[in-house]
Design brief:
Blueprint (H helix, E strand, L loop, with lengths): L7 E8 L8 E6 L2 H12 L3 E9 L8 E2 L2 E12 L5 E17 L6 E6 L10 H20 L16 H11 L4 H9 L3 H23 L6
Helix pairs in contact: 2-3, 2-5
C-alpha cells in the first residue's frame, strides 16, 4: 500500500480515540468479530486500520466513522484462556478510506495511503511553539488535579517527525480536534493548528484555575 496507488483492502478497527503515526495503542479485544480480525491479522502482515468513530459506540457495530485514519501493526499479542486478546499495536502511516466493504465478519475498507511531508528546518520554530503550548496545558491540568495523560516535562523523541506526532497525541484536546490534526496534510499547518488548540485548552484550564466554572 503506497501513496498514490490503487486503494487496497485492510481490516479496520473503529475506535473512540485517534491513533497517530508512531504512537502505541493498547487494545483489549473481546468482541467475536475483532477476535477474528486479530487472528487473521496475526496470520498475515499484522496490520489493520484504525479510524475514529464519529457517531455510535465501539461495541456492537452500526457506527458512523471518519474517513482518515492510521495503519497499526501488532507488536505484541497475547491470547487469554477465554479467547480474548490483549494487544499492543503501533501506528505507522496515515490512510484515507475510499470505500467501506461489508462488515463480515469484521469491518474492512479499501484505503489509500496518504503522503506525509518531512519536518523541514523552517518547521522547527512551529514545533517549539506547539511544544510550549501543549506543555502549558498539561501543567495546568496537573495544577487542577485533572491527571494529564503524561507530565508536562515528558521527553519527546529526538526525531522531529516523531516528536510532532507525539505532541498531537498528548495534547489535552478532544477526539474531534485530534482528528482535525490527523487530517491536516502538511507539517506546518498541523503544528499551527496544534498550537492554537493547545493554547485554547490552556486558556480554559487557566480560567478554571482562577475560580471560573467550566462552560
Amino acid at each position: 500500500m503506497t501513496a498514490g496507488r490503487e486503494a487496497l483492502p485492510i481490516p479496520m478497527f473503529p475506535l473512540g480515540t485517534v491513533l497517530f503515526p508512531h504512537m502505541g495503542l493498547p487494545l483489549h479485544v473481546f468482541e467475536a468479530r475483532y477476535r477474528a480480525l486479530t487472528r487473521d491479522c496475526l496470520e498475515a502482515s499484522g496490520e489493520f486500520g484504525v479510524v475514529l468513530i464519529e457517531r455510535g459506540s465501539e461495541v456492537g457495530g452500526g457506527d458512523t466513522r471518519f474517513g482518515v485514519g492510521t495503519v497499526a501493526v501488532i507488536a505484541e499479542a497475547a491470547e487469554l484462556p477465554d479467547g480474548r486478546w490483549v494487544l499492543l499495536a503501533t501506528g505507522t502511516r496515515r490512510i484515507r478510506v475510499t470505500a467501506w466493504l461489508p462488515d463480515d465478519p469484521y469491518p474492512v475498507a479499501l484505503v489509500e495511503e496518504l503522503a506525509d511531508s518531512p519536518v523541514r528546518p523552517a518547521d522547527m520554530e512551529h514545533l517549539e511553539l506547539a511544544s510550549r503550548a501543549v506543555r502549558r496545558a498539561l501543567a495546568l491540568q496537573t495544577e487542577l488535579g485533572d491527571q494529564p495523560a503524561v507530565p508536562a516535562t515528558v521527553s519527546l523523541d529526538d526525531n522531529p517527525e516523531i516528536a510532532a506526532w507525539q505532541l498531537c497525541a498528548i495534547a489535552p484536546v478532544g477526539p474531534v480536534d485530534h482528528q482535525r490534526l490527523l487530517e491536516t496534510p502538511d507539517v506546518e499547518p498541523r503544528l499551527r493548528l496544534l498550537a492554537e488548540l493547545a493554547t485554547a485548552a490552556a486558556d480554559l484550564l487557566g480560567y478554571r484555575l482562577s475560580g471560573g466554572a467550566p462552560g
